């Protein structure tokens, strides 16, 4: 029974992290679209900050995905 509870908690954690990853990806997509629109309209005052924010979202997403990968390949019951 204890093993089943552990697997359920692990699955819930992975689903929650994947939802966070999806939300970050959508925010990043919105930011990069905004940055490209501003760049094409030659409004560089807003293009650079939104591009940098999109890059920040990308880096955070990489860290979260790396954590998900490590969590998924962790031995059973291990920490």
Instruction: Note the main sheet.
Output: none
Query: In whole angstroms, how far apart are the ends?
Result: 19 Å
Please work out how many helical segments DSSP would assign. Answer: 2
Strand/helix succession = HH
- Residue share in helix: over 70%
Rg (C-alpha, Å): 18 Å
The oligomeric status of these chains comes to single chain
**Apparent shape:** rod-shaped
The domain tally reads: 1
Q: What does the average pLDDT come to?
A: 89
Structural class: mainly alpha
Structure summary, number of beta strands: 0
Q: Beta-sheet strand percentage? A: under 5%
Low-confidence stretches: none
Transmembrane segments: 12-33, 45-65
Keywords: Membrane, Transmembrane, Transmembrane helix
Note down, in words, how this protein is organized.
Keywords: Membrane, Transmembrane, Transmembrane helix. InterPro entries: DUF6755. The chain crosses the membrane at residues 12-33, 45-65. The protein is an all-alpha fold. It has one domain. It contains two helices and no strands. It has helices at 2-40, 44-72. Helix 1 (2-40) packs antiparallel against helix 2 (44-72). It is rod-shaped, with a radius of gyration of 18 Å.
Which helices and strands appear, and what pairs or packs with what?
Elements: H1 2-40, H2 44-72
Helix pairs in contact: 1-2
Short description:
With 79 residues, this protein is an all-alpha fold. The chain has one domain.
Give descriptors for this structure.
rod-shaped; about 80 residues; about 85% helix; mainly alpha
């Amino acid at each position: 029974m204890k093993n089943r509870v552990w697997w359920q908690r692990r699955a819930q954690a992975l689903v929650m992290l994947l939802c966070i990853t999806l939300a970050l990806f959508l925010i990043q997509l919105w930011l990069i679209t905004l940055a490209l629109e501003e760049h094409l309209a030659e409004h560089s005052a807003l293009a650079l900050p939104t591009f940098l924010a999109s890059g920040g979202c990308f880096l955070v997403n990489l860290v979260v995905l790396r954590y998900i990968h490590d969590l998924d390949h962790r031995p059973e019951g291990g920490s």
